[in-house]
Fold this sequence. Notes:
single chain, alpha/beta, 6-stranded mixed beta sheet, two-stranded parallel sheet, 2 helices, 23% helix, globular
Amino acid sequence: MKGTIKISAPYVQQTDSEIFGPAVRLAADVEMINPNTGINETRPLFFEFERRFEEYLCPESSDAFVMGLLSTALENDCAIEFTAPMSETLFYHLSDEYIPAITKYYRNFPIYPVKLTGPVSPQDYLPRGGQRSRCRLFVRS
């Protein structure tokens, strides 16, 4: 691994957006460590929505941020470390199926295997409102 991407615990932040007006963000501070350049940079990464969707956000899980940074890690030979738990189902499918398959069979440009490190939870995280979303992704094993 050439570098590391560290994801802090996610948090919810209310803001005013140029696009949505009153908005809410699911955010986490992301530190990218590149030993080749010696530059360590920390920046917030966020997903922004209208405030009416705040109850559907889940700051207890790193899932959204791992998925958002996965292509960067694959292309730049970086490991991903996360502080908040990642769902066991997503962790399994990424580390045992998706990452090995894409690094083996995708040949258009170099892709490196990614090591995922952090707590994994068998718990199914619910959004803040406590109800499951009507849109769910089902993965077959």
